[in-house]
Design a protein that fits this description.
With 368 residues, the chain is an alpha/beta fold. The protein folds into two domains: 9-271, Acetylglutamate kinase-like (Carbamate kinase); 279-365, Roll (Archaeosine Trna-guanine Transglycosylase, Chain: A, domain 4). 38% of the residues lie in helices and 18% in strands.
């Protein structure tokens, strides 16, 4: 459970609250140095490490001397554009003092949703890891907006997607909280830290609450959602207080610190991409079709009841709110083919096209 001696790939998420000095937006440079020193030791032991960091918006706000929360998409983008190079400069300086090279990677969800760019990014990251470079990843907040759907929402989710992408053995989420409690420690002084979670139940997720701080967007709920994403990659997750002394080293050494989440399944890389991609629409299917895909069979057009949204062939869609799939047909083609048998679909589509809506390898259920 806490034996991480065989861990080879590690993703470490560093939250805004522990990057900043108490009560300020100023980056705690000494903290970054401590993180760099611990990561450098992991690299020397032969492990491959990536860091997902927050803090760019906070640093930009500090430079602009903005008090309180940064509101509005344009202002958050501006703060991110100012703060990101400053944040990266501190990471680069800290790691160079430990003899470790770094690289900056900025992402939006569009990159991960598109299969081609997803694979290109995967190759790029694997090359960096092979060179012994620590990639420092952040959301590209200067272009990400909630309105256009390119924002991850928080770097907890981003860290889990990265861990899933590179087949990480361990995801460490460092925050200003000690881990998962059995109740809200702010309201209940008798709340106890949960040392291990074997299954992320809806009860646990719903009781986690939400919210973040002035410049942070994540709370415990987002961390649990991140744990669920990483769990589908067979990746263990530890949520711990980043201000604990030698926190990373102690976690790797199997120390009883924070909460460890145990995975229950490991999906293929393609199925993980499908599961974590945003959907372009929904296909409503009948009970027989739902049972068929549950038995690892293809989804046929004869089982399609209705189609919602506009999408092209090759897009990821939702199936009855229970599964996701890469569709072989566009929404227009599906509307024409719905309820028809395969021979009718072949005549409708013409030669060289699949007569099924989705094959088993392109279908993944949301829960298990």
């Amino acid at each position: 459970m806490r034996d991480f001696s065989k861990v080879k790939k590690v993703v470490i998420k560093v939250g805004t609250n522990i990057l900043s000095k108490d009560g300020t937006v100023e980056i705690d440079k000494s903290f970054i140095k401590r993180i760099a020193a611990q990561v450098a030791e992991l690299c020397k032991s032969g492990r491959k490490v990536m860091i997902v960091t927050s803090g760019a918006i906070g640093m930009g706000a500090g430079q602009l001397e903005i008090e309180g929360s940064v509101r509005g998409t344009k202002m958050r983008q501006a703060c991110a554009a100012i703060g990101q190079p400053l944040l990266m400069a501190e990471y680069r300086k800290a790691f160079l003092s430990c003899g470790v090279k770094t690289a900056q990677v900025l992402l939006t969800t569009d990159v991960l949703n598109n299969r081609k760019s997803y694979l290109n990014l995967q190759n790029s990251i694997e090359t960096l890891l092979g060179l012994g470079v620590v990639a420092v990843i952040n959301e590209n907040d200067s272009v990400s907006t909630d309105e256009i759907g390119s924002a991850f929402g928080d770097n907890d989710k981003l860290s889990a997607l990265v861990a899933s992408k590179i087949d990480a053995d361990l995801l460490i989420i460092l925050s200003d909280i000690d881990g998962l409690y059995d109740s809200d420690p702010r309201k209940n002084k008798d709340a106890k830290l949960v040392p291990v979670v074997y299954e992320l139940t809806e009860e646990i997720i719903s009781s986690a609450g939400s919210g973040g701080s002035r410049h942070a967007t994540g709370g415990m709920k987002t961390k649990l959602e991140a744990a669920k994403i990483a769990s589908n990659a067979g990746c263990r997750i530890v949520i711990a207080n980043g201000r604990e002394k030698d926190v990373i080293t102690r976690i790797i050494d199997g120390g009883d610190i924070g909460t460890v989440f145990m995975p229950k399944r490991k999906l293929s890389n393609r199925k993980r991409w499908i599961l974590n991609s945003d959907v372009c629409g929904t296909i409503k299917i009948d009970r027989g079709a739902m049972k068929a895909i549950g038995d690892h069979k293809s989804l046929l057009a004869s089982g399609v009841v209705s189609v919602e949204g506009n999408f092209e062939a090759g897009c990821v869609v939702m199936l009855n709110g229970s599964a996701k799939a890469v569709t072989s047909l566009s929404s227009i083609e599906l509307e024409q083919a719905a309820g028809k048998h395969s021979d009718e679909v072949r005549k409708l589509l013409g030669p060289g096209r699949r007569d099924v809506v989705a094959i088993p390898e392109d279908i993944v259920f949301l829960d298990f």
